[in-house]
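Field reference: sequence -> structure
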Amino acid sequence: MPADLPAPPYVPAHLGSFLAFDFGLKRTGVAVGNRLTRTATPQPTIRAEGDARWAPIESRLAEWQPDALVVGVPLHPDGAAHENTARARKFARQLRGRFGLPVYEVDERYSTTEAHAAGARDADAAAAAIILEQFLRSLP
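Structure field:
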């Protein structure tokens, strides 16, 4: 595990449903999943920039009512942070502040590449599902 991301945090057992985000400046992939099945389902990508993305995110939260959120944090292959790492972490902090839910960060290196390789029609949503399933598999 790279030094930039801490070891997987303790996730209380009562947190069972999750909404995950593959943050991008213009598109944010979304997936929903749960601890019981340890599977994630891609949802329609949010195609909005800046503050315009908050209304669709709020709608998804109202629809799915997750117990917690997961955000993919991109890193260089060697684990080093870059410009988009800081953007994704800022997005995670904003989610915590706006919605008051626990937010977990996940190393998302190669998730979009994996989504493209799998032939995903919506690579952003597929990447969010990959991120969420990776997170769910890490839970005890």
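Note: Strands lie at 17-22, 28-34, 39-46, 68-73, 103-107.
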